[in-house]
Amino acid sequence: MYALVKDNTIQQIIASPKSIVIDDVRYPAKIFSLWSTSELNAIGIYEVETNSTNFKDEKWYINTNESYAFGSNKVTRSWGTATAKAHADTLYTQEDVDDDVDDNGDRKGDFSVGDLKVEGLKTILIRNIKSEARGLLNETDWYLTRKTEKSTAIPNAITTWRDGIRTKQAAMETAVTNASNTPALETLYTYVNTADEGDPEVYERPLGEFPELGS
Prior knowledge:
Shape: extended
Strand order of the largest sheet: 2-1-5-8-7
Structural class: alpha+beta
Number of strands: 13
Order of helices and strands: EEEEHHEEEEEEHEHHHHEE
Strand content: 15-25%
């Protein structure tokens, strides 16, 4: 990515090399690969440097729009301070109800104070945990059907594994519920190397994993 700068002001962001007109002179796209940095700078073209210090994982944060700045003879692409997504549900307030009227003074919506307005991360994550557990249990539901239809006993290993899924699901949901804020939720899902120094790397997350069948 490049930027065209004139009079210390960014005139254009160039996403990829292309033919470009500068001061009534058309330059071919190949200058971006053939010319040196100083030659490009001489006609006002600078390669964009990205500063991603403030850019955060969009699963957990809302990033600002990117911005570009020219200074110290370089163009920098950066972001402002990211905002953490709400970890708790947002509920409708009395103010929301009072504002929910049309020009005739009639209510436009059918919500009440305390109804769900926006789902927080905890609600979304717990729903995902439930869905994953349900999907795993579905893989062995046929044992229950066979027992009902044929009176064939369910192997102990299957029963133990299914119980383990439910136990882990409950533990995961508790960990998410108890997280104090969005960074705490992010930490639960972040894989880190837990191996001792010198040992092969082992990446685990504090939330843990569902047990594997047969393990």
